[in-house]
Automatic annotation (TrEMBL):
Keyword Calcium in record: no
Protein name stated in the entry: HEAT repeat domain-containing protein
Keyword Signal among record annotations: yes
Lineage: Bacteria, Pseudomonadati, Pseudomonadota, Betaproteobacteria, Burkholderiales
Species for this entry: Acidovorax bellezanensis
Signal sequence segment: 1-27
Keywords per UniProt: Membrane, Signal, Transmembrane, Transmembrane helix
Bilayer-spanning residue ranges: 79-102
InterPro entries given in the database record: ARM-like, ARM-type_fold
Residue stretches in coiled coil: none
UniProt region (Disordered), positions on chain: 168-188
Length: 686
């Protein structure tokens, strides 16, 4: 019995092992359904990946809002410095564009008026033709004489410029390139056309109508030296020389502009007239601006020093504002090439020199110096010192009413509150924002209103963290209502942001339909807005609206929502708008694939890839890689593994040198999937 049991057990083991190793010649063939099940499982996994991607994207809206909570702490330092500089540059550029367009328009209108006049008075002119013909010889002779005299005067001007250039010391510097834009911001600095034109008119009769041929000798932007000495007052002569220098630079480059400034400085070097001194100070400042462009920051700093030293004891208001400007930008330039301590010392010099000055133009530079002094100290010594610096500015200018000063006061109050958030609890941050909002409650200055809107927005975020979404929604409502009729671009972007996250919170608190109504309100209000930042919020609202519509009404309505966004914004040139177009195109392809099959899904991916190739948006490479990966998977369903492998190869080759983690993820997936398909092919072949 015992032997029988052992023999039986041995036979069972041998049989089982043979079956396991494939030696059983009579083993039943593996059921074919297993391969189908594997294919279904693969498809399910791919669909699951897509669904996960959709869920992650839908979560990005909330993630973006959470990211905004940190903006008040991160938008510091150099970002704020360059923001102020960028605003100055934009205003300056607008001034230059307005000036030159107005000048061109005036010329065109004058030309049209002259044509109309000749047409209306042709009959009278015809009666005078005979007299004009008799006088033409004497007119031409007179022109020749005038032209000869003019050439002599032009030679005298050139001689004076050469003399002045030799006599002016060449040890100065240029102001920061951003300061050259201040030229166009000063009305008196806008170059006016000064020209001496000598004209000869030849009048002929052609087929009973009058044709007038005008020959004009136009010598640009030159006035005679005798006019400076005799006809014009010194201040007018100085102004004209300044304008001539600007025009010489426009026509012949920075070196000629510097020569023009040299002529003005040399000519009025010892003049003590306040109006003349202003033009001398202005010329020195912009002379150093040009020299700095040519020779670098060290020469620029030396130029500022020359201006500061020359007018150190001057009490003239018009000169003091150029002194303050030069001292401020000297500190800025020192900060670029030296350590922060020297830059702070430069700001201290401005503050100390003009601490008792009541002139608005000077106080602006003091406020600016105090602001960036606080920023630099905070970067070196921590947020507590930065807060103390802001406090000093706020205390000094808390009662000021000058718009140029108030914008720096509002900025300091805002970032003081942001820094307090790093050191204290949210309640104190909210109190800081409340102080700013209350201080400028009645102010209508655009530069100030921007900071009020920003404070109301981040106050709302802090309220939401403490008291929940209902209070957060109420905060957004307050911001939207306060600026309901605001048209300033810097404020509009905060209104759009508030309307977007209000819709997000309402959708979470109540139901998606109310969230969609909130997105509709945003889209309707800003559908024609030209500001890129605002258009981006409209595109984002349309995208999330499409997602929520799909949740309520199904994929067909979701696709329709994506189509609206794509049609509206596909040709937009703003990168922040194109981002949402690409997202919409991707998820449109996914949803189309669910409804209509892989061919339509592949067509959707192809549309996205073609759009990406046309617009070349580096920031959206991840979506390109994602589309190429899932396109390959769908091609495998339709056309087999060989074409699927070829599609993966295209993805791998395209992003072979890319090290971005999000893109590497899809490259790795493609490589893994390719290896799996190749192994399966080898196994089936064997």
């Amino acid at each position: 019995m015992r032997r029988f049991f052992c023999f039986t057990l041995f036979f069972v083991l041998v049989t089982f092992t043979s079956s396991f190793l494939g030696f059983d010649s009579v083993a039943a063939p593996a059921p074919q359904v297993s391969k189908v099940d594997l294919e279904k499982l693969r498809d399910n996994l791919l669909n699951l990946e897509k669904d996960i991607a959709i869920i992650s994207i839908k979560a990005e809206a909330q993630s973006n809002r959470i990211t905004d909570l940190g903006l008040s702490a991160t938008h510091q330092g150099n970002l704020i410095s360059w923001t102020g500089v960028a605003i100055s540059l934009i205003v300056a550029a607008a001034g230059l564009i307005t000036f030159f367009s107005a000048k061109a328009r005036a010329k065109e209108e004058a030309r049209e008026a002259s044509h109309i006049w000749f047409k209306d008075n042709s009959a009278e002119l015809n009666r005078q033709i005979q007299d004009l013909q008799r006088k033409v010889n004497s007119i031409v002779e007179s022109i020749d004489v005038d032209h000869a005299q003019f050439k002599n005067k032009l030679a005298a001007v050139s001689a004076e410029f050469d003399l002045a250039k030799k006599g002016f010391p060449n040890n100065s510097q240029q102001g920061a390139s951003r300061d050259d834009s201040f030229l166009s911001m000063e009305n008196e600095a806008s170059p006016q056309e000064s020209s001496l034109s000598i004209s000869a008119h030849q009048v002929t009769l052609d087929s009973g109508s009058l044709s007038v041929t005008q020959q004009v000798i136009d010598v640009e932007k030159i006035l005679c030296v005798e006019d400076y000495n005799v006809a014009a007052a010194p201040s007018q002569s100085a102004r004209t020389l300044f304008q001539m220098a600007v025009e010489m630079g426009r026509l012949h480059g920075p070196e000629q502009k510097i020569s023009g400034y040299d002529a003005l400085i040399q000519r009025f070097e010892k003049d003590t007239t306040p109006e003349v001194q202003e033009w001398v100070a202005r010329a020195i400042y912009f002379r150093e601006t040009e020299i700095g462009k040519l020779h670098g920051p060290e020469r620029k700093i030396a130029g500022y020093d020359a201006l500061i030293q020359r007018f150190e004891e001057n009490t003239n208001l018009a000169v003091r504002k150029w002194m303050a400007r030069a001292m401020y930008f000297k500190a800025v330039e020192i900060g670029k090439s030296h350590d922060p301590a020297q830059e702070i010392a430069g700001y201290d010099a401005v503050i100390q020199r003009f601490k008792a000055d009541t002139t608005p133009e000077v106080r602006e530079w003091v406020a600016q110096a105090m602001y960036f002094r606080a920023v630099k100290i905070g970067n070196v010594q921590g947020p507590e010192r930065k807060v103390a610096g802001y406090d000093a500015l706020i205390q000094r200018f808390k009662e000021d009413t000058t718009p140029a000063v108030l914008k720096w006061l509002a900025r300091a109050m805002y970032f003081r509150t942001a820094e307090m958030g790093k050191l204290h609890d949210p309640a104190q941050v909210i109190a800081g924002y409340d102080t700013l909002i209350q201080r400028f409650e009645e102010d209508t200055t655009p530069e100030v209103q921007e900071w009020v809107a920003r404070a109301m927005y981040f106050r709302t975020l802090e309220i939401g963290k403490l008291h929940g979404p209902e209070q957060e929604i109420a905060g957004y409502d307050a911001l939207i209502q306060r600026f309901a009729d605001e048209t300033d671009p810097a404020v509009r972007k905060w209104i759009a942001r508030a309307m977007f996250f209000r819709a997000v919170e309402i959708g979470k608190l109540h139901d998606p339909a109310q969230g969609i109504a909130g997105y509709d309100a945003l889209i309707q209000r800003f559908e024609e807005d030209i500001l890129p930042e605002v258009r981006a919020w409209v595109a984002r609202a349309m995208y999330i609206r499409a997602l929520d519509t799909g949740v309520i009404n199904g994929p067909e309505k979701e696709i329709a929502g994506y189509d609206v966004l794509i049609r509206r914004s596909a040709n937009d040139t703003a990168t922040e708008v194109r981002e949402w177009v690409i997202r919409a195109m991707y998820f449109r392809a996914v949803e189309i694939g669910k409804l209509q099959g892989p061919e339509q899904e592949i067509a959707g991916y192809d549309a996205l890839i073609q759009y990406f190739e046309k617009n070349a948006i580096p920031e959206m490479q991840e979506w390109m890689a994602r589309s190429m990966y899932f396109r390959a998977a769908e091609i495998g369903k339709l056309h087999g593994p060989e074409q699927e492998i070829a599609s993966y190869d295209a993805l791998i080759q395209r992003f072979a040198d890319d090290t971005t983690p999000e893109i590497l993820e899809y490259v790795t997936r493609a490589e893994t999937r390719k290896v799996s398909l190749l192994q399966r092919n080898e196994s089936s072949t064997a």
